[in-house]
Structure to design on (250 residues):
């Protein structure tokens, strides 16, 4: 099964109106790509980026987070409906920084996936083990637990509209990327696990790798049969570096 690659840049809490404008102008230099190219600015810049990318239709907009509630007295939160109003297509859910710094549990992550799907957003479900868990041989157990919590709430069929990002916590922002083979091994296991519930879903679901991806490592990464793209943090703030990663995706 041919799955379209996705290269998504997660800008995290970086940027200003001026730097976002420069970055998007740089990204609009993109040459034709078979990959879907996604940008994930902080909330305040969503409308600025939406307006800049709309005429060209080459970049797709994502948000970094959303509330698990639909609306109401949740000061400081942003709802799924607000994101669709701003032409957002994808939303990161369960990024390890949300899980570790803001206490997002598997259950909260599952609720967020549910409200995102109900609003017509495509969740990019981030999963992955800590270094301690990897060293204890728990990598697959952790990834399967994180995915199972979502399946329990939305069902396996919903994964037709969910992208998975395998992001080992020890590789995020550390410069210590998993090797292409390490990524492939985990992606293959995640897909096999989904296949035990639905083969068609497992064959269709796009599984991205995230964790210190750079242009220099992406070409080998993208040759792996179960790696369907990348979620890129630090390197996505440099238009040239990010576009080189997009180029490597073909
Ligand atoms: C991320 O934040 O999702 C990420 C993968 O970051 P980095 O590429 O900087 O490791």
């Amino acid at each position: 099964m041919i799955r379209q690659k996705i290269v998504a840049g997660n800008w995290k809490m970086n940027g200003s109106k001026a730097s976002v404008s420069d970055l998007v102008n740089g990204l609009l230099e993109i040459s034709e790509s078979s990959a879907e190219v996604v940008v994930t600015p902080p909330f305040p810049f969503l409308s600025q980026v939406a307006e800049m990318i709309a005429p060209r239709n080459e970049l797709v907009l994502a948000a970094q987070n959303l509330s698990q509630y639909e609306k109401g007295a949740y000061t400081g939160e942003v709802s799924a409906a607000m994101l669709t109003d701003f032409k957002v297509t994808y939303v990161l859910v369960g990024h390890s920084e949300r899980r570790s710094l803001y206490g997002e549990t598997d259950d909260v992550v599952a609720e967020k996936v549910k409200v995102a799907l109900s609003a017509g957003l495509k969740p990019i479900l981030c999963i992955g083990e800590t270094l301690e868990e990897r060293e204890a041989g728990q990598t697959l157990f952790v990834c399967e637990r994180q995915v199972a919590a979502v399946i329990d709430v939305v069902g396996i069929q919903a994964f037709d509209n969910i992208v998975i990002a395998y992001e080992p916590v020890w590789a995020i922002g550390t410069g210590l990327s998993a090797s292409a083979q390490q990524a492939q091994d985990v992606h293959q296991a995640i897909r096999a696990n989904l296949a035990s519930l639905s083969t068609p879903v497992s064959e269709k679901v796009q599984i991205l790798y995230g964790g210190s991806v750079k242009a220099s490592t992406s070409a080998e990464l993208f040759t792996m049969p179960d790696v369907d793209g990348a979620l890129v943090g630090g390197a996505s703030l440099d238009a040239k570096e990010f576009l080189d990663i997009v180029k490597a995706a073909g």
